[in-house]
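Below is a filled-in request sheet from our internal design queue. Each sheet records the structural input a requester submitted and the sequence that came back. We keep these sheets so that new team members can see what a complete request looks like end to end.

REQUESTER: design group, bay 2
PRIORITY: normal
MODE: inverse folding
CHAIN LENGTH: 351
BACKBONE (tokenized):
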């Protein structure tokens, strides 16, 4: 017969009704049991050993696989949902139109002991607001840069390390407003040498920027897109800030177009209303309003003058995506002196 060594409590609070224990190796034997006959004592031990209350066997646990667990660490991105993106325009558009660059080879480089200067003379073909971006390659963690265009304030930023494989987008330092066409002095200050492999300036890139940001969707669901919140990808088309105008004007080229990027908090169906003006003689002009994947084409009628505003209902669209959405106006036919002037586009929610 095999016996199992068991451990009984070595100290028990003794009362008149509780037998006192004396420790004996692994077994604490009550004093009263020491006078028992061996056969009876072994029978008692077998009984106590089989009792669950005195068993030292570890409780059975479910295997990790059966419990639905594993040794893999939790996914740090498991709770991140993919951002829904609105559909693209049904017609192709050119977002490079109106952009231009100053290349390093056309500038003057002046090195210093702990800094360097680049100087250019820029000829602006169109006035308006532009994003100014630095084009460069860098193996440094970061380097401070300062850009000044004409009499505008200094734009400051830090240029991080670039990707050595593939083409890098220009790093936007900020927005600069050009009040008129003509020549502007441009200077770039870098915090160290910047025509060396560790940091190599390639040029400055300018692309059209809106004059202001859209207000977003109002509490009643309406979305109002003013002229000054449009980005004009154009050579002539631009926002005219004079109080009597406050519109998109100089729409003289068929390839010029305007785009609004706006947020939608409550998706749904909307009626698209265009506020525009057109002068006499501009007969036969046609345009299209693009709203995500929707296209609304229309004829441009004479309103009696470019600042004689007329509201025209173009149709209904459904915006299904929360967040960023896009709307554009593109010319289809331009037969007069100018396409039209645009004051704003309004999206009215439909119940």
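RETURNED SEQUENCE:
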């Amino acid at each position: 017969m095999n016996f199992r060594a068991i451990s009984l409590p070595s100290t028990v609070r003794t009362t008149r009704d509780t037998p006192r224990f004396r420790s004996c190796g692994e077994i604490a034997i009550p004093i009263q049991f020491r006078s028992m006959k061996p056969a009876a004592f072994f029978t008692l031990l077998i009984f106590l050993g089989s009792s669950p209350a005195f068993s030292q066997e570890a409780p059975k646990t479910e295997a990790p696989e059966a419990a639905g667990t594993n040794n893999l660490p939790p996914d740090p991105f498991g709770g991140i949902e993919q951002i829904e993106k609105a559909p693209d325009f049904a017609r192709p558009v050119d977002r490079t139109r109106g952009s231009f660059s100053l290349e390093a080879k056309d500038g003057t480089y002046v090195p210093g002991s702990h800094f360097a200067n680049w100087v250019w003379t820029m000829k602006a073909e169109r006035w308006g607001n532009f994003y100014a971006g630095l084009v460069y390659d860098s193996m440094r963690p970061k380097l401070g840069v300062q850009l000044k265009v004409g009499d505008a304030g200094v734009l400051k930023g830090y240029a991080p390390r670039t990707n050595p494989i593939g083409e890098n987008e220009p790093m936007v330092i900020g927005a600069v407003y050009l009040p008129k066409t003509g020549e502007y002095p441009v200077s770039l200050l870098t915090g160290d040498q910047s025509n060396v492999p560790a940091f190599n300036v390639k040029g400055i890139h300018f692309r059209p920027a809106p004059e202001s940001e859209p207000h977003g969707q109002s509490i009643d669901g309406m979305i109002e897109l003013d002229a000054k919140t449009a980005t004009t990808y154009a050579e002539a088309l631009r926002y005219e800030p004079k109080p009597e105008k406050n519109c998109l004007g100089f729409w003289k080229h068929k390839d010029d177009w305007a785009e609004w990027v706006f947020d939608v908090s409550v998706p749904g169906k909307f009626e698209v209303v265009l506020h525009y003006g057109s002068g006499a003689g501009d007969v036969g002009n046609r345009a299209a309003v693009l709203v995500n994947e929707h296209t609304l084409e229309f004829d441009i009628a004479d309103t009696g003058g470019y600042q004689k505003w007329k509201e025209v209902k173009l149709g209904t669209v459904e915006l299904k995506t929360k967040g960023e959405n896009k709307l554009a106006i593109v010319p289809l036919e331009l037969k007069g002196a100018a396409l039209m002037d645009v004051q704003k586009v309004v999206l009215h929610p439909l119940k």
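SHEET NOTES:
- DSSP finds one helix and 23 strands in the chain.
- The domain at 223-349 is CATH 2.60.120.260 (Jelly Rolls).
FILED BY: M.R.
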